[in-house]
Write a structure and sequence with these properties.
This protein is α+β, with helices and mostly antiparallel strands. Helix 6 crosses helix 7 and helix 6 (about 185-195) crosses helix 10 (about 285-300).
């Protein structure tokens, strides 16, 4: 709606306009859409909300980014500090979690697990304090934990070898299927099951909608279907692939497609309904596309099945006045779990300690023996770091982790961003190096902590509060429904933009309050205590200090401690030169104990020094002169390319466009002429990731070769196929991998020093 509005506005047209509103790309849906075109006034609220979202994002982004960048650049240099209406509160969620992890102090506790013998066999039970009441403010306390070893040992000694009596209670339990997918829940599920990023899941779902036409519109926040969609669902069931036919036939046979507010509910639909199959048969799906299609199709089938039914048994074994609890959970009727097979049924079983899928039977009034009691020494654990699935959930709940599906639906219009933008927000935070991916974990950088510290210190609460931002999203939802004016919303946004700028003007960098670290390594100049403030690391006993941000990159605390301890740290990635180009370097101390860049470049001419490689094992032969190649500084070099008798110029960086080149890959390059496919390159021009092989040219130079993808059936062939060498050469010209590392001058140059205002 927003894109069309911009085009129509730019064209200046006065012609009447109507909207073609599609939920899926099938021929039937398109014909139906043309038969029921919508008037422009029907989507006026949606248009106003879309324009307000775009304008507010721009106003807060441009003013906030300029204000924070100017603030961080007051003392010299240019320190780009991006801020966003949704991006920054999302970052605040991740930083707050990491802060809790860093401050967490584990506590020792003890649990007891007993093994009991009865006529039918053995079972285990966990000790339980029946009189337990959770203390206020202690999230780790529960009825199974003891906080000193002596108490645990006393209970063990008291109960060891003693007989026990058993009471047992059995009751039925049922579990409904999960709701249909919206985009966020699909992204969470795909991340948890397959490790797909939110962005990748959206791209796949979009392809399944636009290209393959097998799924409905994916950028939706609804988890229900229209109330008049019952007959359409029946048609979809008949059109599903054969592997799903047994479940679809059972649903039809049992008459389970009927009015149900959990599935068919107009009140829970905004612009689009839940993601479901279209009924068109999929053809030639990739493995990843098949996985997403299968997730959506099985969820669609499962929602019509009855609840899974369990028999839950709670057994209490009393020994010498102490109580041990055992829980058993037995699946009685698979219900919707049948759609997912035996594996899903096993996943649903209770896995808590002291529980079992099926308990051995105990007869009435039977006395059991205490065969063994184990005292377990354990420790409390910090909160888990966010991954994409849990961060998406937190964004949906405006910072609150909401697992209950009905509650999540109720909070959907108060979340951070929209289903269609959340993946982009996470990727943006990663691109700006506020967040790093480590496996599936998302870890905030020092730059992230610095920004949140600054905003909180300046009192710009609206940019660090997920709840306030969630409130804005709620107001945009009201605007979509015509319940809030555009003017009222934009007035609030304008006032906030002014507040951000004014607060940035009213502080100096030395006066920003916050929680700052005391380093574990002493001052390199006098041995005094080194503390962090907003801008610097400074000795408390002498005049030594160094900037936290150098060449646009902020140091992490462990990096600074390594530098202070060893006089060198690196190679470090992510520095930027005056042209904004990324480069990598070691950081070393000069004679004044100030950090300088060391690019590992050999000195030339009379200053050149001989390099002793005798302690190293050669990697391979130089492709230019057949001498030996070794590791040297931040590069792999020919032994004849360093020292006073230099006769060769072969060298290749250990890090090329942010992709580390491991020793074994350099060995492949030297011996076979080509590395494996490397997937971590980041374009210096577009800042996008790409994959490529490093190849050795005939002249010995290192270039790129891109993976040749087999064109799909029916696809047009390229006019002229490039050779591998041409591809490598064009890649080299565009990205200049080796040159990117070599660009900085060979001499060491000091990191920016403090300038007077």
């Amino acid at each position: 709606e927003l894109i069309f509005n911009f085009i129509a506005q730019h064209s200046g047209t006065t012609k009447p306009m109507q909207r073609l509103w599609l939920q899926s790309m099938t021929a039937t849906a398109i014909r139906d859409g043309f038969a029921h075109l919508r008037a422009a006034r029907d989507v006026e609220g949606l248009r106003n909300a879309a324009v307000c979202r775009a304008e507010s994002d721009w106003l807060i982004g441009i003013n906030g980014t300029r204000a924070m960048t100017a603030f961080n650049s007051k003392t010299g240099g240019f320190h780009l500090t991006t801020v966003g209406r949704v991006q920054t509160p999302t970052l605040a969620i991740v930083v707050e979690r990491e802060d809790r992890i860093r401050k967490f102090k584990s506590r020792d506790y003890w649990e007891l697990e007993a093994r009991f013998g009865c006529k039918a066999g053995e079972y285990t039970g966990r000790w339980l304090d029946e009189k337990f009441k959770k203390p206020e403010g202690d999230e780790h306390a529960n009825a199974h934990r003891l906080w000193n070893a002596a108490a645990a040992e006393a209970i063990r000694a008291k109960c060891a070898g003693q007989p026990g009596t058993v009471t047992e209670e059995a009751k039925p339990s049922s579990q409904l299927s999960p709701l249909l997918f919206d985009l966020t829940s699909l992204q969470r599920e795909a991340n948890g099951r397959f490790g797909f990023s939110a962005r990748v899941t959206l791209q796949i779902a979009q392809a399944l909608y636009e290209k393959h036409k097998v799924l409905t519109y994916p950028r939706t926040d609804a988890r229900a279907l229209p109330e008049d969609y019952i007959s359409t669902v029946s048609d979809v069931m008949r059109g599903l692939p054969d592997e799903y036919a047994p479940f679809a036939n059972e649903i039809t046979k049992q008459g389970w497609i009927r009015p149900n507010k959990r599935i068919f509910n107009n009140a829970k639909i905004s612009d689009h309904f839940a993601i479901i199959p279209t009924g068109s048969l999929p053809k030639t799906l990739s493995e990843a596309e098949q996985k997403i299609y299968d997730l959506v199709t099985r969820r669609f089938l499962a929602v019509f099945y009855p609840a899974a039914e369990y028999q839950i048994t709670t057994r209490m074994t009393r020994v010498a006045g102490e109580v041990f609890k055992t829980e058993g959970k037995v699946l009685v009727n698979a219900g919707w779990l049948a759609v997912y097979g035996k594996e899903a049924a096993n996943d649903e079983k209770d896995t808590k300690e002291g529980s079992a899928p099926q308990l051995v039977a105990v007869q009435a009034n039977e006395t059991v023996s205490t065969n063994d009691i184990l005292v377990k020494a354990l420790q409390t654990k910090p909160p888990a770091r966010f991954n994409e699935a849990t961060l998406l959930s937190a964004m949906e709940g405006a910072g609150k982790m909401v697992d209950d599906e009905e509650m999540r639906a109720a909070m959907a219009d108060r979340g951070l961003g929209t289903p269609a933008t959340r993946a982009q927000i996470i990727e943006g935070l990663i691109a700006e190096q506020y967040i790093h991916r480590d496996g599936r974990e998302l870890i905030p950088s020092a730059k992230a902590f610095s920004l949140i510290t600054l905003l909180k210190g300046l009192g710009v609460n609206a940019l660090t509060s997920p709840e306030l931002t969630g409130g804005w999203e709620h107001k945009l939802s009201l605007m979509e429904r015509g319940e809030l004016s555009r003017e009222a919303f934009m007035h609030e946004i304008a006032e906030m933009a002014r507040e951000v700028v004014e607060r940035a003007k009213s502080f100096d960098s030395d006066t920003v309050p916050g929680e700052f670290a005391t380093l574990a390594v002493p001052c390199p100049k006098c041995g005094g205590l080194v503390k962090e403030n907003y801008k610097k690391f400074a000795c408390q006993a002498c005049d030594w200090s160094m900037w936290k941000i150098v060449a646009g990159r902020q140091f992490e605390i462990p990096e600074i401690e390594t530098l202070l301890r060893e006089g060198k740290v690196g190679p470090l990635l992510g520095f930027r030169n005056k042209m904004g180009r990324l480069f990598n370097a070691d950081i070393v101390f000069n004679e004044d104990k100030q950090p300088t860049f060391d690019f590992g470049q050999p000195k030339e001419g009379e200053e050149a020094e001989a390099v002793d490689f005798s302690a190293q094992e050669a990697i391979g032969s130089c492709p230019k002169c057949q001498s030996r190649v070794f590791e040297h500084g931040m590069a792999y070099v020919c032994e004849k390319s360093v020292g006073p008798d230099k006769s060769c110029d072969f060298r290749s960086g250990k890090i090329i466009l942010q992709q580390p080149i491991e020793r074994e890959q350099m060995l492949k390059l030297l011996t076979e002429g080509k590395t494996e496919l490397l997937k971590g390159f980041v374009s210096a021009r577009t800042r996008r990731k790409f994959s490529a092989y490093l190849v050795r040219g005939k002249d010995g130079k290192v270039g790129f070769e891109f993976e040749v993808k087999t064109p799909k059936a029916g696809a047009a062939k390229p006019a002229a196929a490039k050779t591998a060498a041409a591809k490598a050469e064009s890649a080299k010209a565009e990205e200049a991998p080796a040159e990117e590392v070599k660009k900085p001058a060979a001499r060491k140059r000091a990191a920016p020093k403090k300038k007077t205002a």
